[in-house]
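Review the following:
>
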Amino acid sequence: MKKRTAALLMLLFALGASGAAADTLGEIAAAANEPWRETVEAHGRQIVFDVTPQVPDAERIGVYHVTQEQVSDIAGEYPYSKSEYPEKRRGIAFRSKPDDVFTPDTFDPAYHAFGSPDSAQDVLSRAQEMIAPHAQEPGLSIAWETLTGSSPAYIYNKNTGEWGETAIEGAVGSYRIGFETTLYGVPLLGAGEGRSIGLFMRAAERYEMVQKYVPSWKTQYLSYTPAYHALNLTVPHVTQVLEEDAELASLNEVRAVLRGLAEEGLLRGIDTMWLGLMAFAYHDAQEESMVYDVQEGEVFLLKPVWVCQCEMVDSPDEEPSIFMEIEQMRYTVAIDARTGELIRASWVPRAEE
């Protein structure tokens, strides 16, 4: 009887231990409510963590097989040429004025970008109309994040700091709209402005890894004049649902990976942490050309990943140079959100499922 009781207790303990590492998206969101504040002392330095993990406001996060649709729709021709610029004179430069940037919270539909005949609402409506036919997938949403109004080149007096007329007579401002792509409320990482993927890997690995392909789900609309605009769009199409509601590694396990990189002396700071979906190819790039050609109908694995923008170096003894400070030593550290394991290459390992 004692042996049976002991065995039952051991089984219950094992079940409890395995369940502790498998969290739902809701549990992860609850654990991420508070900022992660911690100081790690390693290799004579103090690395301070102060970051709030960003978790999607969604009911669940799944695992999928997807194909990739790429669209490049360009209408008209670029209207300006540098050959039209006037002759340069001493003290005179051709410069663009600072951009005007809007988000959905600050959007001004009546805004006209530096004399453009199109209003911000005109351009946004045109972009949404072009995107709509490609966003029919169940659960798929493509919503705008930023609308940027950019100026043409102006004549600028470097001696007086005064702005003159546009360098090309009649030139007007342009628009750029960045979109976020989500699947059932979960962002596709690599989509939208500021979400591109270029992953960190240790220096020794850079010469050993075959390049892997990570699709980027980016949608951007450009409008220079009413007669010239361009849409570049990449969207997923789900071919199979592998897991509707994936079990996730705990937030503590994810933090432990980042803490470990800090203790190695490689991670010097964390800017952002995002939980979303990232796609993985099932095949390597060609070793000779290091180019990955996406095949028509090719299937990718789309799964939950933590993407962390971090300050990274190659060696614990390395100190930032002036060039590294300019570049801010920014790398993306990716962590498999289901296993809590570091994705260990700048061109990430192919799908294994």
About this structure: Residues 1-21, 191-211, 285-291, 345-353 have pLDDT under 50 and may be disordered. Residues 2-20 form the longest helix (19 residues).
